[in-house]
Amino acid sequence: MTGLDPLTWAVVLMLLGCALVVLEVFIPSGGILGILSGFAVIGSIVFAFQSDTTSGLLFIICALLAVPAILALAFKVWPHTPMGKAFLGELPSEEEVKSIDQRRELVGRFGVAKSLMLPSGVVLVDGQRLDAISQGDAIEAGEPVVVVEVRGNRVLVRRADPDEASQTPVDQQDVMSRPLDELGLEEFDDRLE
């Protein structure tokens, strides 16, 4: 009975090494399967060189290309397996991952400066008090502003043009300058005795 030739052993050991690399990803073995995989791939190269030098070099190239490719493929598939799902939990959907910053919806909206802006201050836009930065020159308290841009955690505003100022909602204008009947307050008729 004759044994297998060295090239056949090289192919068998290379396939075994690749299979052990995949198992190392899916089965936590503390690195034992990875070490066995390394020995199998090295043994494959040794047997290939026993066959001839060209086969040995071909198996080195195969090991350098196939093993990382199979490892990457295993890591790509792993999160979708039951063990990967148990280990990582459910992967979030694309909508869950998107950052939600409601301030970005304020771009183009009108508001009122609530403090002197040199260049930073407080503005009231859509009923929200926001820390903002003036895009240009100083803005006095009570002047109408327009939200120009939101950069990170900064809201940039500019002074609204006179025709834009007329578009500022009444509820955002200065409360102290509005008549009592617009605020929904009744006059105090009752005298305290």
What's the short story on this structure?
It is a multi-pass membrane protein. The protein is α+β, with helices and mostly antiparallel strands and 193 residues long.
3D structure, described in words:
- The chain is α+β, with helices and mostly antiparallel strands.
- The chain folds into two domains: 6-88; 102-174, Nucleic acid-binding proteins (OB fold (Dihydrolipoamide Acetyltransferase, E2P)).
- Helix content is 44%, strand content 16%.
- It has helices at 6-26, 32-51, 53-77, 82-88, 94-97, 162-165, 180-183; strands at 110-113, 120-125, 128-134, 144-151, 154-159.
- The protein has a five-stranded mixed β-barrel with strand order 1-2-3-5-4.
- A hairpin with a 2-residue loop joins strand 2 and strand 3 (128-134).
- Helix 1 (6-26) packs antiparallel against helix 2 (32-51).
- The termini are far apart.
- The mean pLDDT is 81.
- Pfam families: NfeD, NfeD_membrane.
- Keywords: Membrane, Transmembrane, Transmembrane helix.
- Residues 165-175 have a biased composition (Polar residues).
- Residues 183-193 have a biased composition (Acidic residues).
- The chain crosses the membrane at residues 6-27, 32-50, 56-75.
Count of distinct structural domains: 2
How large a portion of the residues is in β-strands, by DSSP E? Answer: 15-25%
Proportion of residues in helical segments? 40-55%
Mean pLDDT across residues:
81
- Order of strands across the widest beta sheet? 1-2-3-5-4
Number of helical runs?
7
How many β-strand stretches?
Answer: 5
Task: Summarize the helix and strand pattern as letters.
Answer: HHHHHEEEEEHH
Contiguous uncertain segments of 5+ residues: none
What summary fits the major beta sheet? 5 strands, mixed, barrel
Structural class designation: alpha+beta
Q: What's the Cα radius of gyration?
A: 36 Å
Overall 3D form: elongated
Domain NfeD-like C-terminal: 105-159
Main location: membrane
Biased composition (Acidic residues): 183-193
Biased composition (Polar residues): 165-175
